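Lab manual, section 2.4: Encoding a predicted structure.

Procedure: take the sequence of the chain (119 residues), apply the prediction step described in section 2.3, and record the output as structure tokens. A sample record is shown.
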Amino acid sequence: QVQVVESGGGLVQSGGSLRLSCAFSGKNFELYDMAWHREAPGKQREAVVTMIASGKYGYADPVKGRFVVSRDLAKKMFYLQMNRLKPEDTAVYYCKSDGIINGRHEEYWGQGTQVTVSS
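Recorded output:
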């Protein structure tokens, strides 16, 4: 059974940085597309960045040039380096894994980690 667990959230001042981590437990990490999503109060959950299994990735416009995604296949870790944070980045950040494993679609979400950016 796959689990993804986020960590690294916290309170930071505007302009600061945080690094989120997502620990993947289970098999076939390299076969999953991984993504960071966020949900701000009163808003719908939105995708921040997606990295597909091949390693290609794409960012949402609001975070382009500020956030950097990476992964460590050996450690089964997925990261989000967030720089030049803004108050509007305040949200719960979720890690998601998504893949077709043995012909079956599997999707897993973490419990989320709170990021609060003060002005």
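Check your result against the sample. The chain has a mean pLDDT of 97.
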